[in-house]
Amino acid sequence: MTRFATRFHNARMDDSAKPGLERELKRLERRLDELVGVVAQLKEENRALRQRQDTLSAERAALMQKNEQVRARVEAMIGRLKAMESGA
Asked: How far apart are CA 65 and CA 60, in angstroms?
């Protein structure tokens, strides 16, 4: 093939490949849109989970503090009972 014939042949192949290429680009564009949607959904889910984790951590800290207060009160009561028992 001559140079001109090769260029003409390649140009014709490019023209015939355009519909397939355009279809592939559209498919990739749709897939990319889907992935962007998934990323947005995962970001929101991650934000909600972090917020929930913060809430649960705060609740846990409050419960641990209450537990410590109750433990101290019970120990004080046991001490008073033992003192009463010793004095009786």
From this structure: 9
